Here is the input.
Amino acid sequence: MISFAECSARERLALLLDEGSFHEWLPPSRKLTSPHLAALGVPSAFDDGVAIGRATLAGSPVFVAAQEGQFMGGGVGEVHGAKLVGLLQRALRDRPTAVLLLAESGGVRLHEANAGLIAVSEVMRALLDVRAAGIPVIVLIGGTGGCFGGMGIVARCADHVVMSDIGRLAMSGPEVIEASHGVEEFDSRDRALVWRTTGGKHRWLTGDCDALVEDDVAAFRAAAIAALQASHPVTLALLEAEHARLTARLAFTGAEAVELWAAIGVPDAARVPDLDVAAVTALGVH
Amino acid sequence: MDWQTLATQLFGADHGITREGDFLHGEVTFDGAPLSVIGTTAHAAIGVQLALQQARAVLDLMAHHPGRPLLLLIDTQGQQLRRRDELLGINRAMAHLGQCLDLARRRGHRVLGLVYDQALSGGFITSGLIADACDALPEAEIRVMRLPAMARVTKLPESLLAELSESNPVFAPGVRNYVAMGGVRQLWQGDLAQALRNALATAPTDDRRAAEGAARGGRRLAASVTRLVLDAA
Here is the structure.
């Protein structure tokens, strides 16, 4: 068992995809860096924090992107975002079986805030173009940095979301909420609270992710293979169903995950944090 | 600009747009044709509930008025920063709103955004930035995050950020920087009704923001890097 969380973006690609099949576009040898970071005197990276390319998965052609959470928290800057947009536009043109996005990102890279914000919205539109074309976009979330901000929205625009129990998916990070409304609102140092609120188990129980796996690269690989045909083009009927599902959540007035799980019918909700992935998966989606 | 003043200048005193909390909605007549309007006011924080209110209006538009254009009036401080919203999946609710607007575009509704007061980050990505085109009033304010929070996250001194926000278009708040980067298509000057008429007539249906950012010199790399990926061996 190899921890997905502890791997770098390129290690994840090497282990997740068919052996030796990853062919990178705009690799680090191209030295495509962010001019905006250089202007701030902040170290840059020769891939701007994301690796993109083509590969095969169980023999099927796929396009892939992997964000490197160790560089600027996986933040989306102008070049980083343009690489993702290019990959998605190329998928629309070349029609691989699926697009895989190994997301680990705090969202917009604040050092180039305006360009990053526009870039995230361009990624969102390009992703929805690919999804509308019937090519499934599969998002894999299992890095220690989680998937936040604009990338948390992008992830929920995809056809299929896979998370590990240590993966996190949300909008604002707990530190930002704590800074805004105080430690009573969200104690960012309370790790158990943070994971109950945004972690993989919670997202599985509420249906915010489609598969929950162990923190194991092989488990992510198996889940990605299983999702290769998981295309769900957006239709009015699909959005009406989504709307009903989300509206029903507003009936819950609290802010504590265990109470929410109990309210939606998860048996022995208080035990969930202590259960392993197999046991949580067996509880099903509520 | 106050939303009432804006609505009156665009559609006359009997504009028919109503306010429920921070949510604005209405069906107006513009140049003799029906136009739907949704939006927010009072620098609304977009939480799960407000995202769903807006999504409901877009779903109803698609179901009952196929092809009718939609104007989004944008004034938001960004996403609501509450633990309950995160627990309930605010990112999913915002993605839902964005997908409703995206589907409306694909079904032939012209979707036009107008930043009439302020726009911040998450509240903007799933409104104006997912529209066919997003315009703004000249006095509008667009930014990603307030400087103190930004200093905390980036670990850069607030004084440096304040200095940069005077000079660096990629970093500095301000609607003109967004125009230069292609994120905002144009500013509405003078007669606002004429500006709306022009905006509806010229809204593109494809995403031209990277190309416009390059042409205007405010975002030089996005279009060329995308092209490099398409052409890579």
